[in-house]
């Protein structure tokens, strides 16, 4: 039990220095005087010294563990680092030179302990000492500063600073800013209570997580060149909230934030427009400022450094956060031009044609046109020694008509299309070599071609098809035989079997009969088929010949059979009766059976069979 003549109740969330200050005031002493009377240093209590806190607890008659629960334990005197409720904080993350309170909390303290002197009833909460916490979660009020006069004799002595403000607590409560706690404030309070909620922020020390959010928010809200020293309490509150909304999303969200800074940067063409210019105060903080002084910020630098190496045109010779860049991931048109010696405008055209960059219009934008370094290297390699279409024809040993066909049918594609730049198409030798390799893949060497084995142009003529069809059959590996003529080169060294091509390209049989075949089926001269079709007596169709691909007129067998059932020519009828056609006509005329069509227009005499059958007894 305590031997003190006066004691004060301990409250959950109270700091050891606040309890010591109240205990000292109850005994009519300052906190420092009180501690000295018992052989202690008040600073030891403030710094969370376990022995000092245990002595105070014993004197105040409270549980030592409860009193130490909300202490800020100084763990590194040189770096001035503190451990609070399992979380590491630095001096700059604490509000120790000013006293901030929630006036409604103090009014509640006085009301709850009406038997005590108000100066002894109020107590300091540990959350009020964390700089990032600027709002009372319980009352949704902004914290109010009641003292900034930090004389050494009263430093950390809560009662000494709270007492002058007690008379105006009602007015302070009425004028305090009403607001909800921000996302960052809630995160800090939850993390202190053992409830983590943002993986990336949870993985770094609390003070680093707080500062990361504030720096991201400061740049996002006030610009990359904002004067951080002029930002107010309210500005930092808004910055912390905005930055937490980004950082809570982890590395992808931070990357998107950096991408936006990069996208919105107004390039001037100066030679020093690197990460520091693009990311402003955020980069400077990590490289030169507070973020460079503490190892807790190393994971953040790793995230930002990774983004810089993967999204900015840095390469060997550059240094990112003190670490040399070993491999280039991204090129700008400018850096690629410096590396290859090619003109930036030509490179821009090449990269645009390859779909690696967007459009640009002047030299300064070439720094903005970024692309994958490996893909860009391939484009440049392909473009070296690019050929015009006629030169590509000579390179492939393809006749003029055939090189034009290869380009038109996209068997070869330009590395620099003319349509985009009002110029001639340019073809990369590597692309032409790749086409030839595919065309001759698996080809058999032939010294002397056998009959029917011929080049693609000759086979196209022999098989009544286009060279494009033969090339497609070769590339799709649908031919059983492809040869390569010894002593020849390129396109004209490719051999195919004309008969196999003819078979492969033959179209589907339409099943129709030619006029000559119809004439044979009807037993008449083939010259009368056209008049019959023209007169609408025979229905014909226009189809594509499956062999020569030419349009032709055919008559379907069913139509021929219909005509034969309905009509018969005079010559076929006479043959069926076994008599001369004149005798047959005389017999038909005698019974009044007239021809079905005008014989002069058709060129032959036809009768309706139904008329003949109905008059058979009279005719025969």
Task: Explain how this protein is built.
The longest helix is centred in the middle third of the chain and has 17 residues, at 206-222. The strands form eight sheets. A four-stranded mixed sheet has the order 12-14-15-13. It has four domains: 16-175, no CATH class; 183-327, no CATH class; 437-505, no CATH class; 515-619, no CATH class. Helix 14 packs across helix 16. The chain is elongated and about 155 Å long. The mean pLDDT is 88. It contains 34 helices and 19 strands. With 620 residues, it is an alpha+beta fold. Strand 1 (73-76) and strand 2 (81-84) form a beta hairpin.
List the helices and strands and how they pair.
Layout: H1 16-26, H2 31-37, H3 42-46, H4 50-60, H5 64-68, E1 73-76, E2 81-84, E3 87-90, E4 99-101, H6 103-112, H7 118-121, E5 135-136, E6 141-142, E7 144-147, H8 158-162, H9 169-175, H10 183-192, H11 199-202, H12 206-222, H13 233-247, H14 250-264, H15 275-287, H16 298-311, E8 319-320, E9 323-324, E10 330-332, H17 333-340, H18 344-353, E11 370-372, H19 373-383, H20 389-396, H21 400-408, H22 418-421, H23 429-439, E12 444-446, E13 453-455, H24 456-462, H25 467-475, E14 482-485, E15 494-497, H26 498-505, H27 515-522, H28 529-534, E16 541-544, E17 551-554, H29 557-566, E18 567-569, H30 570-577, H31 581-590, H32 599-602, E19 606-608, H33 609-614, H34 616-619
Parallel strand pairs: 12-14
Antiparallel strand pairs: 1-2, 2-3, 4-7, 5-6, 8-9, 10-11, 13-15, 14-15, 16-17, 18-19
Helix pairs in contact: 1-2, 6-9, 12-13, 12-15, 14-16, 17-18, 20-21, 24-25, 30-31
